[in-house]
Write a structure and sequence with these properties.
Elements (H helix, E strand, L loop, with lengths): L4 E6 L2 E7 H10 L7 E4 L6 E2 L30 H6 L21 H14 L1 H24 L7 E5 L2 E9 L1 H31 L15 H20 L3 H10 L2 H8 L3 H11 L4 H20 L5 H33 L3
Helix pairs in contact: 3-11, 4-5, 5-6, 5-8, 5-11, 6-7, 6-9, 8-9, 10-11
């Protein structure tokens, strides 16, 4: 329903076309009331908005009688109007963020993440498998280098996966640094892959290895990010959570816009304004989805993680493009 083209009556005239998400926004703003007449292609007659599921969710109640209906209200809109309903030549990477800020639609992000997972499961699974294998091999290689490099460790009773280094601190730090660079490199490649998938561009395994020129700027951005979050956590925890959410898209920003560390963090801060609560709920939903997937005999964890990663990248694009363009993009690419 999100990609359908709707018309509504206002002040005796026919308004539109608009997409379904914009129709809901108009209802929330009070422009469309329960007794406002609405219509879309395929409907025999105009109907009251209150009779169409989803239009009036959280919309204010009607406080006035409906205005006069448009002349010949049952006439179908022209083909030109319908074609104009969804803009198809919009910029996938807009120069400016929308004003006022877009309200994140969690249902859209999660449902589109689910559809992307179903439509591209094999490709996404293989991509994730390669990603995981590389990380495992790198970790095994570096562990094998401990003894030749003179690094000694003892088991940590509190963390069985990470032993405590007791000698060879410099060598251990170097290996940890290299491991971090590799993780950043693969993370950037993953972001590029998902952005291509969502935007309807070619997405290939080679995307995983395509972002090497952005590793060091991302490293610096990551350091700044953790400093900012740590300072926020010192002040009663909540500010740290807010900072983590507001700045959390910096890596994807670097991949898509090739900004510097400070600029990427600033862009993420602006992008997420007025949506901290929604992004927090999305994060909690992601945790819930992951737990449900893990409980489903572990097998369900794989598609659950794919849905989560897709949903977060969709949210990133949604905050830039808005509901109408995202719905049009999903329709145009046929990938969601």
């Amino acid at each position: 329903m999100s990609s359908e083209n709707w018309f509504y009556a206002a002040d005796g005239t026919q308004q539109g076309p608009v997409g379904f998400y914009q129709l809901r926004t108009l209802a929330q703003e009070g422009t469309i009331k329960p007794d406002t007449l609405i219509w879309r292609e395929g409907m025999e007659n105009w109907v009251k908005a209150e009779t169409v599921d989803g239009v009036l969710d959280e919309a204010p109640a009607s406080d006035a009688s409906p205005g006069p209906i448009p002349s010949n209200p049952y006439a179908a809109p022209s083909a030109t109007q319908i074609t104009a309903a969804v803009e198809t030549d919009f910029e996938l990477i807009p120069k400016n963020l929308p004003e006022p800020p877009v309200k994140l639609d969690l249902g859209f992000c999660l449902s589109q993440g689910w559809k992307l997972m179903k439509a591209n499961f094999v490709s996404l699974f293989l991509f994730g498998l390669v990603y995981l294998i590389i990380l495992i091999l790198v970790s095994a290689l570096f562990q094998a280098l401990y003894e030749p490099l003179g690094i000694e460790t003892v088991p940590d009773p509190n963390n069985p996966f990470t032993p405590t280094v007791i000698s060879g601190f410099g060598q251990a730090f170097l290996l940890e640094f290299l491991s971090t660079l590799i993780e950043i490199f693969l993370g950037l490649g993953s972001a590029r892959y998902l952005l291509n998938l969502i935007s309807g561009e070619d997405f290939e395994l080679s995307d995983l290895f395509s972002q090497g020129d952005k590793v060091f700027k991302t490293l610096l951005a990551t350091i700044l990010y953790f400093i900012a979050v740590s300072i926020g956590l010192i002040f009663l925890v909540v500010p740290g959570i807010i900072v983590a959410i507001r700045l959390g898209h910096y890596q994807t920003v670097i991949v898509e816009r090739n900004l510097g560390p400070v600029e990427a963090l600033r862009f993420s801060w602006q992008l997420t304004r007025h949506n901290v609560g929604a992004l927090l709920v999305l994060g909690l939903a992601a945790i819930g989805i992951g737990l449900v997937g893990a409980l489903a005999l572990v097998v369900g964890l794989i598609p659950a993680l794919i849905v989560v990663y897709c949903a977060f990248t969709i949210a990133y694009k949604f905050l830039q493009l808005g509901p109408e363009k995202m719905a049009a993009l999903a329709e145009r690419t046929g990938r969601a």
